[in-house]
TrEMBL record:
Keywords, sorted A to Z: Transferase
Key word Transferase present: yes
One Pfam family it belongs to: Methyltransf_11
GO molecular function: S-adenosylmethionine-dependent methyltransferase activity
Domain of life: Eukaryota
InterPro entries assigned: Erg6_SMT_methyltransf, Methyltransf_11, SAM-dependent_MTases_sf
Region span, Disordered: 1-50
UniProt entry tagged with the keyword Iron: no
Domain Methyltransferase type: 124-222
Protein name, entry field: Methyltransferase type 11 domain-containing protein
Cited Gene3D superfamilies: Vaccinia Virus protein VP39
Biased composition (Polar residues): 7-16
Amino acid sequence: MVCRAQSIASHLSPFSSRRERPMHPAQTSSDSRPAPRRGAAMGSRSGDAGARGVATNAVLAQYESEEAAQYYSVILGGGGPDLHYGIYTSPDDSTTTASAKTVTVLRQLAEAAGAVFAPGVRVLDLGAGAGGAAQLLAETTGVSVTCVNLCRKQNEANREAVQRRGLSALITVVDGSYDDLPADWTATFDIVWSQDAILHAADKATVFAEAARALVHGGYAVVSDVGASANADAAALAAYVERMRLAEVLTAAEYEEGLAAVGIDILRTRDMTGHIIPNYRRMLGRIARERGRLDACSDAFLDTVVARLRTEITALQEGEAHAWFFLVGRKCGGV
Ligand SMILES: C[S@@+](CC[C@H](N)C(=O)[O-])C[C@H]1O[C@@H](n2cnc3c(N)ncnc32)[C@H](O)[C@@H]1O
C-alpha cells in the first residue's frame, strides 16, 4: 500500500494557541490529583502510573455513580446511547438527531480523506461509552466495531442495545482501557475511531501509541475530542483543567504532533468549537425541563452542573475556554 505524507487539508482555524476544553460538565471537584499538564511529553507507553490511576478514578467518579449515569444518559444523551456533543443545525433538532449528525459528519470527514466504511471493515472505538457511534456506524455502513471502554455500566448498556438492535454479529464490547490494549490487537484494525474520550487520558501519547499499534498500515485514525484552545491563557487553562479534573489538555495542534510522532499523518482537521455553546444551552434547557424525572440526581448535583455549564458558556464567550475538534489521520509510518 502506498502511503505518503500529506499536507493538512483544512487548518485548525482557531487553534493557534491553546484553550482548554472540558468534556461534559458534570464532574465534581476532587483533591489528590496531579498538577495539570499541558502538552505532555509524547512517547512513553506506560505513562505515569500515579497519574493514570487518578485519571481512571476521576473517570469512574464522573460517569459511574447512579446520579452521574442518569444525568449523562438523560441530559447529554437525550435518553439515547450518545455521550458526546451534537451538531445542532435547526432549532427543531432533537438530541438524538444532533448526536447522529456528529457521527455522520466525522465519518464523512474520514471518507473525504479516503477511509472506507463498509462490511468487513474492522473499526476499533476507543472510549466507546454506551456505544452510540458504534451502533450507528454498524447499522448504517455494516462495519464491524470493537468497543473498548472503561465504564462498565456503559458497557452493559451498550451490550444490551447491541442485542436489542440485532447488531451482535457486528459489535463486540470489551471492558478495558484505551491506554493498554490487548497485545494481540497489534495491526488488527482498519479504522481507530474515538469520540470525545481521549481527553480523559492522563498521557495522551500512550493512547496515540496504542491506537497506532492497533491500526494496520494504511489504516485511519478518526478522532473527535475536547481540548485546549490555542489561545487560552495559562490561568484560564489551569482553571478549566481543575474544573474538569483532567490530567492534561492538548490543543488540536498537539494532537497532530502526538499522532505524527507515532506514524499517523494528519489528513483532515476541523474546528467544531462553535458547536459547544449550543450543546450547553440545550443541556441547561433539558435540566430545567427534566429535573422532576431525574430521580437519581440530587438538587445539589444538578445545581452544581448548572453552575458549571454557565461557567463554561461564559468562558467560551470570553474566548478563553476549551475547543472541540475533529481529526483524521492515516498510519503511514511506525510498525
Ligand atoms: C464523553 S464520553 C464519550 C463516549 C462515547 N465515545 C460517545 O461518544 O458517546 C467519554 C468516555 O471515555 C471513556 N473513557 C475514559 N477514560 C477511558 C480509558 N482510559 N479507557 C477507555 N475508555 C475511557 C469513558 O468510559 C466514557 O465513556
